[in-house]
């Protein structure tokens, strides 16, 4: 307590009422304080009257302190005693004093400063959470309120401990029951409000809690009914809105909400309306942000109300006013939420036209330029006047925190803008607004280059990265007005210093990428600068002469063949807001997660230099000295990018660059496999006959999926003539093609159909374009025409999965049967065979692995069989077939869906992958073996019981590598597993192997454990 003099000083600084209350508190605390041998002095008293007296004393003392007095040292000194007493009383659960104790706890956590209370919060969480199911309604309400306050002020270091307590006390389930009781009328409305508020906080903090909520069908049905009820209290609807926002942080929860989300979207739009208070509108914006996590479902759901949705966003960005030169704090927070939601402009879609219709250009300008209406009163301003206004805008300390949002939104609007968009046609000053925005962005871009490269001022460049990115997107916009205006304005601003800036950019990139230590932001801005220069006609020749091609190729090679990557999220601090920091069970927005920014920028710049110079092949003197690899090596790298699971923009860009090397189309892993059948006449069932009598034998199933226009199929019904036998006979008889199709062009087209791309000289391109157009192969036609890919367009997939349906059944020439199946009911719609089977195609199966190729094409008895027995379970065989036809192995459930499975359920999910690991070794399918191995290993950390079962499975299937991983994970737990008896389900020999591994681990071989875990990452 300190010296008597210090105590006297402290007492004098407290009011008389507070001093008296504190003295009474001390006296009351002393009545129940006990000296414990190991724990010192603690408050422990079961006497009801003393408990009641202590609760009254705590309440009186808390009521006596207010304002600055709450931070008084004597208050701080009293916290430990107060927390100790109320925690004990709550644990006693004496019904006569419980309600009072819960109320005073709620008062304690709300009055005592968080900095003082933080170290004692864990002492309260357990007793409070254990009282949530209390039959005393007022007790459970007070406990939920107190817990919510604690969680909102909880430090990150305590989060895991608190979650373990909440999980142990089954708090989430108890709160759900309390909420359902509210709907049943057995609890008051206040109960729903406090329980829903507390549950929302829990869901926001811990992703593990979300499955329990969204998977509770009774709760979700009740909440949805509450939304529909027009007589429902508006505050209750707000509680549901917050609850749904928290549920939507889980990708699986979002899908659940959107399954029947009409009422939810209607409520969301109501809350976003400008007539609502700011707090309500913010909740509406936050819910929308969460729901956009599932892009496809969300945009499909709002398709009927897209315009009012966009209007609400734009109003949120526009509905504010200055007060003494500043924007009020609550309006700033609303602006931030609206601007963050406006980042849906990242996605392509019809919502873009509504943003323009709602005047997004004027709104963005108002967020950049203070009193823009007074400065842009003239219908026309010269470029010098526009630059002057833009400089004034950027120099002003005005809404600086929103500028990165403005640049990002402007960039996405530009890159998705229609080619024929012309602001002059819209009037109302739109042309001037867009011109000023472009000018502001170009000036900010120039500042970024100066500060980050020339002046090496990286810290201030954080605010300029988004502006530089916006300029890049405007320069590469499909809209002719935007791109030409951006090129003209940037060229004007660069002026005579443009060449000097370019030199510094190239020097910075070459220096930064030559060592291990580099500044990510500096590289990104320098690379964006170089990519922008590549689009400016007057600088393109200078870029090439200064070694720009070599720099771009070096970056391309570096980024595509190593772990050299940069995530924009690392330096764009406005992007990862509170919503995205807590997301689970789904990937974040593709743009946020993309690790291939430099690779994409390199491709964009490279293709501009190739275009302006007429191609590398036509200018060997220009490019040869700068080539860091041979042309075949470069083509191989670009094809690898197309085959990889990267963003669609990156894959499109690589395919676009390939077109300048006379490779047209879309390389893929599956295309490489199917391409092996192109010149193989085995299993051909269709003849294409040209007018000169030349004939090509092909596979009908591949043509039917990849280019149905070449077959005489009725597209409306999905069939041609009745009966598969008649179809096959007609196809074998031959399909006679038009006289306009010559042999060489048809061979090239078949190359595209089988491989996904073709190689052709310029002399063949014109005829190929005519044939591609006739066959309705629009993506191929786009590449043959060398049209720039549209941002956001899906990369054309090479997928033959449709062949497993009715369209492919007519071409089926083999059936697959599994060794074992648990299917009880089976009926085939194609044949009368009662054994479960899959109708497949020998040509697709034989290209999948050497074993099947030998089996089906050997000419021996097995190759003529109509049935292939697959030595696995039905589930494993289905996954294998999906890989054969799509190139992708289906993944097991992940996130909360996986975490909530018991060990047996997890084993059922993993066993097919273990089987396929074995089969892939037997059939020599390395890609399947590697994929299945990674799937199994990535799941082994979840439970030790699963490791035991997988160890046994790996031993049964003689999978040495998988056995080693499971063994390495079990070795540290050997003693624990022996004590629990969990090793008894293993064979004796395996138990001995685990024991030996444990001994080795204890002798210092534990480093192998980390290696084993990393194998599955």
Unreliable residue stretches: 1-12, 589-593, 715-723, 1006-1017
* CATH class call of the largest domain: Mainly Alpha
Shape: globular
- Chain-averaged pLDDT: 86
Number of helices: 57
Biggest pleated-sheet summary: 3 strands, mixed
How many distinct domains? 6
Write down the CATH topology of the largest domain: Leucine-rich Repeat Variant
- Rounded to the nearest angstrom, the distance between the terminal CA atoms is 54 Å
CATH architecture of the largest domain: Alpha Horseshoe
Organism: Rhamnella rubrinervis
Protein name: BTB domain-containing protein
InterPro entries: ARM-like (IPR011989), ARM-type_fold (IPR016024), ARM_At1g04390 (IPR059007), At1g04390-like (IPR044953), BTB/POZ_dom (IPR000210), SKP1/BTB/POZ_sf (IPR011333)
Pfam families: ARM_6, BTB
How would you characterize this protein structure?
This protein is mainly alpha-helical. It folds into 6 domains: 1-169, Alpha Horseshoe (Leucine-rich Repeat Variant); 248-358, no CATH class; 365-510, no CATH class; 685-795, 2-Layer Sandwich (Potassium Channel Kv1.1, Chain A), CATH 3.30.710.10; 812-889, Potassium Channel Kv1.1, Chain A (2-Layer Sandwich); 891-1017, no CATH class. It is built from 57 helices and 10 strands. Strands 5-4-6 form a 3-stranded mixed beta sheet. Strand 1 (33-36) and strand 2 form a beta hairpin. The model is unreliable at 1-12, 589-593, 715-723 and 1006-1017 (pLDDT under 50).
């Amino acid at each position: 307590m300190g010296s008597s003099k210090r105590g006297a000083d402290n007492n004098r600084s407290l009011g008389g009422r507070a001093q008296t209350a504190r003295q009474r508190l001390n006296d009351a605390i002393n009545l129940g304080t006990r000296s414990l041998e190991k724990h010192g002095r603690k408050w422990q008293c079961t006497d009801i009257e003393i408990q009641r007296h202590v609760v009254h004393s705590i309440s009186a003392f808390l009521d006596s302190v207010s304002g600055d007095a709450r931070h008084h040292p004597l208050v701080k000194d009293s916290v430990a005693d107060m927390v100790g007493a109320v925690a004990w009383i709550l644990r006693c659960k004496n019904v006569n004093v419980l309600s009072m104790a819960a109320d005073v706890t709620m008062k304690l956590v709300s009055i005592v400063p968080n900095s003082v209370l933080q170290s004692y919060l864990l002492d309260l969480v357990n007793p409070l959470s254990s009282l949530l199911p209390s039959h005393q309604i007022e007790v459970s309400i007070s406990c939920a309120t107190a817990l919510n306050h604690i969680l909102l002020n909880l430090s990150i270091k305590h989060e895991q401990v608190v979650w373990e307590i909440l999980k142990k006390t089954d708090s989430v389930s108890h709160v759900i029951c309390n909420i359902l009781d509210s709907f049943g009328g057995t609890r008051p409305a206040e109960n729903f409000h406090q329980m829903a508020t507390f549950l929302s906080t829990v869901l926001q903090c811990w992703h593990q809690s979300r499955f329990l909520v969204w998977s509770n069908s009774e709760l979700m049905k009740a909440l949805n009914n509450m939304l529909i009820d027009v007589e429902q209290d508006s505050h209750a609807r707000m509680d549901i809105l917050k609850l749904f926002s928290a549920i939507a942080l889980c990708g699986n929860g979002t899908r659940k909400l959107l399954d029947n989300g009409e009422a939810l979207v209607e409520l969301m739009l109501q809350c976003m309306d400008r007539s609502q208070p700011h707090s309500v509108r913010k909740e509406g914006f936050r819910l929308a942000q969460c729901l956009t996590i599932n892009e496809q479902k969300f945009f499909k759901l709002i398709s009927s109300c897209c315009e009012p949705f966009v209007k609400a966003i734009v109003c949120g960005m526009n509905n504010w006013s200055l007060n003494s030169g500043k924007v009020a704090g609550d309006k700033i927070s609303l602006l931030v939420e609206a601007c963050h939601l406006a980042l849906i402009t990242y996605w392509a879609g019809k919502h873009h036209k509504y943003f323009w219709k709602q005047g997004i250009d004027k709104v963005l300008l108002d967020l950049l330029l203070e009193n823009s209406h007074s400065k842009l009163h003239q219908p026309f301003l010269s470029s010098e006047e526009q630059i002057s206004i833009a400089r004034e805008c950027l120099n002003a300390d005005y809404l600086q925190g929103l500028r990165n949002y403005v640049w990002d939104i402007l960039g996405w609007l530009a890159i998705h803008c229609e080619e024929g968009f012309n602001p002059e046609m819209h009037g109302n000053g739109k042309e001037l607004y867009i011109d000023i925005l472009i000018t502001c962005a170009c000036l900010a871009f120039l500042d970024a280059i100066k500060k980050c490269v020339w002046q090496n001022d990286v810290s201030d460049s954080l605010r300029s990265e988004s502006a530089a990115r916006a300029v890049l997107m405007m320069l590469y916009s499909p809209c002719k007005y935007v791109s030409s205006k951006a090129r003209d304005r940037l060229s004007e601003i660069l002026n005579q210093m443009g060449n000097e800036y370019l030199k510094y950019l190239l020097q910075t990139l070459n220096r930064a990428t030559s060592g291990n230590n580099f500044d990510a932001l500096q590289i990104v801005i320098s690379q964006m600068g170089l990519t922008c220069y590549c689009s400016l006609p007057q600088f393109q020749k200078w870029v090439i002469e200064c070694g720009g091609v070599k720099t771009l190729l070096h970056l391309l090679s570096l980024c595509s063949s190593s772990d050299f990557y940069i995530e924009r999220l690392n330096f764009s601090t406005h992007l990862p807001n509170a919503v995205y920091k807590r997301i689970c069970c789904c990937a974040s927005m593709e743009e946020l997660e993309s690790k291939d920014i430099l690779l994409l920028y390199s491709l964009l710049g490279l293709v501009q230099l190739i275009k302006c110079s007429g191609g590398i092949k036509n200018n060997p003197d220009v490019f040869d000295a700068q080539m860091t690899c041979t042309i075949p090596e470069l083509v191989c790298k670009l094809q690898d990018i197309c085959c990889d699971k990267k963003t669609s923009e990156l894959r499109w860009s690589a395919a676009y660059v390939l077109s300048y090397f006379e490779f047209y189309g879309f390389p893929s892993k599956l295309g490489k496999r199917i391409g092996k059948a192109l010149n193989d006449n085995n299993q051909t069932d269709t003849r294409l006959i040209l007018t000169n009598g030349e004939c090509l034998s092909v596979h009908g199933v591949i043509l039917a999926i990849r280019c149905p226009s070449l077959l005489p199929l009725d597209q409306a019904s999905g069939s041609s003539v009745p009966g598969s036998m008649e179809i096959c006979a007609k196809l074998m008889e031959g399909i006679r093609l038009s006289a306009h199709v010559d042999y060489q062009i048809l061979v090239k087209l078949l190359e595209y159909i089988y491989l996904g791309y073709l190689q052709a000289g310029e002399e063949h391109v014109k005829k190929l374009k005519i044939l591609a157009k006739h066959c309705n192969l629009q993506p191929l036609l786009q590449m043959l025409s060398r049209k720039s890919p549209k941002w956001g367009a899906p990369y054309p997939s090479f997928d033959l999965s449709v062949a497993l349906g009715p369209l492919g059944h007519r071409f089926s020439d083999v059936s697959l049967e599994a060794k074992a199946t648990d299917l009880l009911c089976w009926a085939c719609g194609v044949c009368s065979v009662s054994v479960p089977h899959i109708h497949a195609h020998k040509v697709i199966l034989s290209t999948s692995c050497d074993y099947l190729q030998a089996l089906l094409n050997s000419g021996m008895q097995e190759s003529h069989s109509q049935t292939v027995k697959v030595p696995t379970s039905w589930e494993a065989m289905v996954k294998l077939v999906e890989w054969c036809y799509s190139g992708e192995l289906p993944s097991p459930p992940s996130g909360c869906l996986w975490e909530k499975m018991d060990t047996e359920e997890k084993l059922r999910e993993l066993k097919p992958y273990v089987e396929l690991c074995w089969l892939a070794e037997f059939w020599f399918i390395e890609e399947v073996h590697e994929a299945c191995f990674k799937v199994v290993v990535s799941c082994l950390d979840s439970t030790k019981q699963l490791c035991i079962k997988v160890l046994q499975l790996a031993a049964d299937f003689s999978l040495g590598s998988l056995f080693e991983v499971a063994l390495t994970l079990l070795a540290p737990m050997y003693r624990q597993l022996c004590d629990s008896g969990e090793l008894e389900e293993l064979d004796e020999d395996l138990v001995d192997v685990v024991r030996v591994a444990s001994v080795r681990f204890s002798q210092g071989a534990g480093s192998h454990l980390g290696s084993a875990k990393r194998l599955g990452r």
